[in-house]
Design goal:
This protein has 398 residues and is α/β, with parallel strands linked by helices. It has an eight-stranded parallel β-sheet. A six-stranded antiparallel β-sheet has the order 11-12-13-18-15-16. The structure holds alpha-D-galactopyranose. Alpha-D-galactopyranose binds next to loops.
């Protein structure tokens, strides 16, 4: 009897560890490069509907964004209105009359993936029902709808512990049996880069981005601070070692094309997000893109820097006032480099091979990515004139 019980126990234990190994691999094979997609919030806020999502999925294909690598179509806040008497989340039926399953099917039929939003607290940031206390029920529901990506916010979280709240939803997603990319949106408050690897596939490192170059003003309640693009950038310095395949720092979604910055500023924004190996989640109206915006969002060589399979996050290797150099080690040993001029006058910016981790005597090919133009062999240094609020982005290949 005793022996049988022991064998039984051992079998249960082995099954258990096989299950958890399996669940681990489920987490770790997702988002092996930074997720690419679109999210409704930056441009549409609460004005979401199934028409918008269908048209956006159509536009993602027609505009060439899908071919460029964009995959996830994510509905942010405001799709949900209440819970029914069984605790099931209720969709806004006026805005989503066909329901989420039908919408997910539509997105999937386009060869794309479908994402949704909820919150670890009792309410979302727009006061809709959050998932607190309903984590497993909600995860099961998302899986049944065919959800592939969950952004999970942090409003109305009161005294909740961030790590255990996100671990709980991680467990719920695992139990749902569906591989779902898990996007932690905790604004960097509890330093998720220190604990969220293995919990989420990406984690926000800051408060919300705004469609401005630089901002950093206090909010009306006196708390700190709104973030323009460069304010967000500054908060990434020092976080680079925490990112890698399956687990990314998320400096927030793109504002490219939303109208608050110039085309050169949007090109800088996109280049810097690529060098950071940031998730590339477009936040503009894909149905109505100016050609220059489409060109930025679909630029294959810049996207390739973001999606480099080694998964290294780039870092700032030099700052001289408004003039900065950012560099990222690519899988083939070459470097992607952004020469970044934050100032209001054009300036010459140079980078030395030592700053890139190369010996000075090395001869290397330099290629301008935005111009898709080879700039020849260089030895020891490279420099270029960079327009105000602009970048020059190159690869350096020994
Ligand atoms: C928070 C998030 C944003 C967005 C809104 C929605 O502010 O950080 O990205 O999801 O909530 O209400």
């Amino acid at each position: 009897m005793k022996r049988t019980a022991l064998i039984l126990l051992a079998a249960i234990f082995m099954l258990g560890s096989a299950w958890s190994l399996d669940q681990q691999s489920l987490v770790n094979t997702l988002a092996s490069t930074p997720p690419m997609g679109w999210n409704s919030w930056n441009r549409f806020a609460c004005n979401v509907s199934e028409d918008l999502i269908r048209q956006t999925a159509d536009a993602m294909v027609a505009s060439g964004m899908k071919d460029a690598g964009y995959q996830y179509v994510v509905i942010d806040d405001c799709w949900q209105v209440e819970r029914d008497s069984n605790g099931n989340i209720v969709i806004d039926a006026k805005r989503f009359p066909s329901g989420m399953k039908a919408l997910a099917d539509y997105v999937h039929a386009k060869g794309l993936k479908f994402g949704i939003y909820s919150d670890a607290g009792t309410k979302t940031c727009q006061g809709r029902p959050g998932s607190r206390g309903y984590e497993f029920q909600d995860a099961w529901q998302y899986a049944a709808w065919g959800v592939d990506y969950l952004k999970f916010d942090w409003c109305s979280s009161s005294t909740q512990d961030a790590r255990s709240s996100y671990e709980l939803m991680r467990a719920a997603l695992d139990a749902s049996g569906r591989p779902i990319v898990f996007s932690i949106c905790e604004w960097g408050t509890a330093k998720p880069w220190l604990w969220a690897k293995g919990v989420g596939n990406l984690w926000r490192t800051t408060g919300d981005i705004s469609d401005t170059w630089q901002d950093h003003k206090k909010w009306p309640d006196g708390s700190c601070c709104s973030n323009g693009m460069v304010d967000i950038l500054d908060q990434q310095v020092g976080l680079e070692s925490y990112a890698g395949p399956g687990h990314w720092n998320d400096p927030d979604m793109l504002e490219v094309g939303n109208g608050g910055m110039t085309t050169a500023e949007y090109r800088a924004h996109f280049s810097l997000w690529a060098i950071l190996a940031a998730p590339l989640i477009a936040g503009n109206d894909l149905r109505d893109m100016k050609p220059e915006i489409r060109e930025i969002l679909t630029h294959k060589e810049v996207i390739a820097v973001d999606q480099d399979p080694a998964g290294n996050e780039g870092s700032r290797v030099r700052k001289n006032g408004d003039l900065e150099v950012w560099s990222k080690v690519l899988q083939d040993g070459s470097r992607a480099v952004v020469l970044f001029n934050r100032g209001t006058a054009g300036a010459e910016i140079g980078v030395s091979w030592e700053e890139l981790g190369y010996p000075a005597h090395l001869s290397a090919k330099v290629r301008d990515l935005w111009q898709a133009k080879d700039l020849g062999e260089h030895k020891g240094t490279f420099s270029a004139t960079v327009a105000p609020h602009s970048v020059v982005m190159v690869t350096v290949t020994p």
